[in-house]
Amino acid sequence: MIKGFVFDMDGLLFDSERIVQRSWNAAGSELGYEGIGEQIYNTLGFNRARRAVYFEEIYGDDFPVEAFQERAARHFVQIVDLEGMSMKEGAREVLKFAKEKGLAVGLATSSSEGYARGNLQRAGIESYFDGLISGNMVGRSKPDPEIYLKACAAIGVAPAEAIAFEDAAAGILSASKAGLRTVMVPDLVQPAEEILEKVWMLKPSLTEALEELKKIL
């Protein structure tokens, strides 16, 4: 019996990954690393610390991680302030459905807690969530299962009784290893065959995923 939903955030609830990519390109250009935004395709689901390691692996130990992250964060805020950040199609509806069904709702995001809560508050959806685990609350980033195990514990639901909603491969692997069923709604990258083997339900939008879930739950 399903007792809870656990959601990723960036690229799943919010159309934020493209803004991240633009902010990386702007920050990289200022620091002499043109086109660094393309690296987002290889780091989806990584938390801040894991991405820092990745950049040093790709660009060398002298890559200015802190300066890059600070500039990227500033550009991200500037873009959001000017253009806003929309929720993904069906996101609000699937959250409402979960609450109507009496399900516990958790968030398992690789982003920081402050950033995550700010997004939820601005969108007016924070009250839907019973628990939140962010990237700075875990020692190991997705695809490690730690974040989903902690998210399930935070909402008082066993992993086998929960469904994870993800857009990226790292998140699917994380949730699958933790023992959750997985719903995948791809955003920037389509899943490889080995990822599809871990996916319980694959849909192009949360709207279509919700329609299928209504038939099951």
Automatic annotation (TrEMBL):
<dbReference type="InterPro" id="IPR006439">
    <property type="entry name" value="HAD-SF_hydro_IA"/>
</dbReference>
<dbReference type="InterPro" id="IPR023198">
    <property type="entry name" value="PGP-like_dom2"/>
</dbReference>
<protein>
    <submittedName>
        <fullName>HAD family phosphatase</fullName>
    </submittedName>
</protein>
<dbReference type="InterPro" id="IPR051806">
    <property type="entry name" value="HAD-like_SPP"/>
</dbReference>
<dbReference type="Pfam" id="PF00702">
    <property type="entry name" value="Hydrolase"/>
</dbReference>
<dbReference type="GO" id="GO:0050308">
    <property type="term" value="F:sugar-phosphatase activity"/>
</dbReference>
<dbReference type="InterPro" id="IPR023214">
    <property type="entry name" value="HAD_sf"/>
</dbReference>
<dbReference type="InterPro" id="IPR036412">
    <property type="entry name" value="HAD-like_sf"/>
</dbReference>
